[in-house]
């Protein structure tokens, strides 16, 4: 056992930590090329120092990128201007005022000090000096008032701009998202480009670009204006005062801009500890305070054990049981940077008093006041220039405009086809489906995997034919590829090889929306939309209220969900899983705790975002109701009904009722069932497809497949599944 494992009691599970060699146990540690390592208490920190080097090639590359990004940036600014002309114009005018105000205020402060210096130096105060002083101070205060108003106006117009931008761009992004097939929607490009599903209350397309451009330009011009005014002021002072002011004008920006934002030069960093006790303690902490584990802990009588274990491991860890939140923001900069910053930025008055010759006390005193005011003003502007925007470079900010337009124009690679379906010249009610050597493999590199999602399994070399108007049953064990196979028919996925024919024409030749409009599908895991049950069940229906109500009641009866819906307090107006919108202030941003009285007002008058618990069986009945509603709405257009494990969580009575209703309502249409529970369904099937490891290993009727199993060397896959279920093992 190595030294890292000796700290652990025998009860601690093993958390794999890579073995590392330290040279002195503290600073620094071995790391990959370009990455630096150091110790911070019991944590080991790794970071890659930012590369800061100037080259003409890099400058040319930056200028080239700026030139390439400018057209899209200009286009977006003009579009924002056209979309929200009034708030845009007022916002820009307020920003211009805030650019001019600091420099003008600095000039007025120097003028006021000049009048005071002249009056005190001459030992007489004339009426003209008093009037001049009053005028300058009034103008100075007027500028301050206007700056305050301009700041408020910018906040108000920014709020209005956000509303205009959401109204203008979000419908376009919604349209772009809904153009994508499921494969394209889960691609890495789509994940980077399109808004997140939970971002409704914060997504404002284009505003970040606008805000960054205006803020950076405003802050830069403010600093330039203040430096220009300071240069003009310096030129009118004495030699010593000129040198001193010039020193601070040069040193203050240099110190503030060159001082690293953290001890690692602003680089991002990671940290971990080789002490496994810390991570074990984190797991015990989660178990102790989580509601998810409490029923199991209580049932097994382990609450006292967890308490004792936490106390024991906490004692082992001792004072090293630190919170990591304090380490996450940043590591402090080196001490000498803090010292220089303190002298130049925080205590310029003391430095000025030390450096002035004091041959003329009044002049020196005025210079001290001027230095203090100038450094304070310049400090605020430089801090805004450095910290008031995101860490993105100007090139990256301008490229945001191009990314927005790419998102709006985003489209899938799916060939959407042009032929309308169904063909009006064909009299049949069903859909003929032919697979010719079809294979499918999920693109793992392009797609983003989500936690809890089961990836589609590959299928290989599949051949079969389902005649129009027939009943087909797809059977097979878990992970045999049944769902992958069915996902190819509505083109949710595209085959990697082979050809799929619908009514003797390539599936890809048909308009994809018209083909999907001729299908009614239900799967094992159906998601209810975050809308009312009425909207869920009637989505896509017309506005005939009387007809829709008849469809709703009939579909609920056919889907065996009428009793469940009638038992809900809001019945068809129930939203099972609402889309929440933030409706509370954020504590720590000038807001205190929300009082119970205020929360009561929200609960009384605001929407209810609490989800409604629905058992899996009821969820499947609702999904069945939605499918029947679609069948009733489009009974003349529907050619194919697909039921993928649609009754897995239903009780036997409702399952039998569901199957009977599908057969009756789907008479003459092509019906495909995927099921684990065969029952009498397979005996009524016109064709049975038996899948195993992504291949169709058998196909035929029930009688044909059972007879095949009796022949010497015949495949017994179907017969074994059927007999096992008949014997009560499945």
UniProtKB/TrEMBL annotation:
PANTHER family registered for this protein in UniProt: ATP-BINDING CASSETTE SUB-FAMILY B MEMBER 10, MITOCHONDRIAL, ATP-DEPENDENT PERMEASE MDL1, MITOCHONDRIAL
UniProt-listed SUPFAM superfamilies: P-loop containing nucleoside triphosphate hydrolases (SSF52540)
Chain segments carrying region Disordered: 1-28
InterPro entries reported in the protein's UniProt record: ABC_transporter-like_ATP-bd (IPR003439), P-loop_NTPase (IPR027417), Type_1_exporter (IPR039421)
Transmembrane segments: 92-115, 135-155, 244-272
Keyword Glycosyltransferase: no
Coiled coil, from the record: none
Keyword annotations: Hydrolase, Membrane, Transmembrane, Transmembrane helix
Keyword Protein transport annotated: no
Highest taxon above the source species: Eukaryota
An annotated Gene Ontology molecular function: ATP binding
Domain ABC transporter: 433-718
This protein's name: P-loop containing nucleoside triphosphate hydrolase protein
């Amino acid at each position: 056992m190595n030294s890292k494992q000796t700290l652990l009691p025998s009860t601690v599970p093993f958390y794999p930590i890579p073995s590392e060699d330290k040279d002195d146990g503290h600073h620094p540690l071995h790391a990959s090329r370009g990455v630096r390592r150091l110790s911070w208490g019991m944590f080991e920190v790794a970071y890659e120092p930012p590369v800061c080097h100037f080259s003409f090639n890099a400058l040319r590359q930056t200028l080239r990128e700026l030139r390439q990004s400018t057209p899209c940036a200009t286009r977006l600014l003009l579009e924002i201007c056209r979309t929200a002309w009034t708030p845009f114009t007022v916002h820009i005018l307020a920003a211009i005022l805030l650019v001019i105000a600091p420099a003008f205020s600095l000039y007025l402060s120097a003028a006021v000090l000049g009048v005071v210096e002249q009056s005190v130096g001459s030992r007489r105060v004339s009426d003209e000096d008093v009037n001049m002083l009053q005028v300058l101070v009034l103008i100075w205060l007027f500028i301050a008032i206007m700056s305050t108003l301009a700041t408020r106006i910018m906040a108000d117009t920014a709020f209005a701009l956000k509303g205009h931008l959401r109204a203008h761009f979000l419908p376009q992004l919604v349209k772009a998202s809904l153009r994508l097939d499921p494969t394209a929607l889960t691609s890495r490009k789509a994940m980077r480009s399109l808004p997140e599903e939970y971002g409704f209350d914060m997504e404002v397309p284009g505003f970040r670009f606008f805000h960054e451009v205006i803020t950076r330009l405003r802050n830069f011009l403010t600093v330039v204006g203040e430096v220009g005014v300071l240069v003009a002021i310096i030129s009118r002072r004495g030699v010593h005062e000129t040198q001193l002011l010039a020193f601070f004008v040069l040193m203050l920006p240099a110190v503030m801009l060159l001082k690293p934002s953290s001890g690692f030069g602003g680089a991002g960093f990671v940290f971990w500890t080789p002490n496994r006790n810390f991570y074990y303690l984190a797991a015990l902490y989660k178990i102790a305070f989580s509601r998810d584990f409490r029923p199991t802990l209580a049932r097994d009588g382990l609450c006292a054990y967890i308490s004792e274990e936490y106390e024991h491991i906490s004692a082992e860890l001792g004072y090293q049981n630190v919170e990591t939140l304090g380490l996450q923001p940043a590591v402090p900069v080196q001490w000498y940077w803090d010292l220089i910053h303190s002298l130049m930025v925080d205590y310029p008055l003391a430095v000025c008093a030390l450096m002035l010759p004091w041959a003329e006390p009044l002049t020196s005193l005025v210079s001290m006041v001027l230095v203090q005011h100038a450094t304070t003003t310049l400090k605020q502007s430089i801090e805004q220039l450095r910290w008031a925007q995101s860490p993105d470079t100007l090139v990256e900010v301008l490229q945001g405009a191009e990314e927005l337009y790419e998102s709006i124009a985003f489209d899938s690679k799916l060939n959407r086809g042009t032929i309308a379906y169904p063909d009006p010249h064909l009299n049949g009610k069903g859909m003929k489906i032919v697979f010719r050597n079809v294979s499918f493999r999920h693109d793992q590199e392009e797609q983003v995997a989500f936690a809890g999602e089961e990836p589609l399994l590959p299928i290989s070399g599949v051949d079969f034919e389902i005649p129009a108007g027939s009943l087909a049953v797809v059977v097979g064990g878990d992970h045999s590829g049944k769902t992958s196979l069915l996902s190819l028919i509505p083109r949710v996925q595209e085959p990697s090889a082979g050809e799929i024919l619908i009514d003797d024409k390539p599936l890809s030749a048909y308009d994809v929306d018209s083909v999907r409009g001729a299908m009614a599908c239900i799967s094992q895991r159906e998601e209810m939309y975050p809308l009312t049950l009425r909207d869920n069940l009637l989505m896509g229906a017309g506005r005939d209220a009387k007809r829709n109500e008849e469809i709703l009641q009939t579909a609920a009866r056919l889907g065996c969900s009428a009793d469940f819906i009638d038992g809900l307090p809001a019945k068809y107006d129930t939203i099972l899983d609402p889309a929440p919108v933030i409706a509370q202030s954020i504590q720590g941003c000038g807001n205190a705790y929300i009082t119970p009285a205020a929360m009561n007002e929200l609960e009384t008058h605001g929407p209810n975002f609490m989800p409604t618990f629905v058992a899996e069986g009821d969820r499947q009945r609702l999904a069945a109701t939605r499918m029947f509603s679609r069948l009733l709405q489009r009974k003349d257009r529907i050619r194919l009904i697909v039921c993928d494990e649609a009754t897995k969580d239903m009780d036997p009575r409702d399952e039998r009722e569901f199957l009977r209703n599908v057969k009756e309502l789907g008479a003459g249409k092509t019906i495909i069932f995927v099921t684990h529970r065969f029952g009498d369904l397979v005996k009524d099937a016109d064709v049975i497809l038996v899948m195993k490891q992504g291949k169709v290993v058998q196909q035929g009727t029930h009688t044909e497949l059972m007879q095949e199993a009796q022949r010497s060397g015949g495949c017994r896959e179907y017969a074994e599944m059927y007999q096992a279920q008949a014997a009560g093992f499945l």
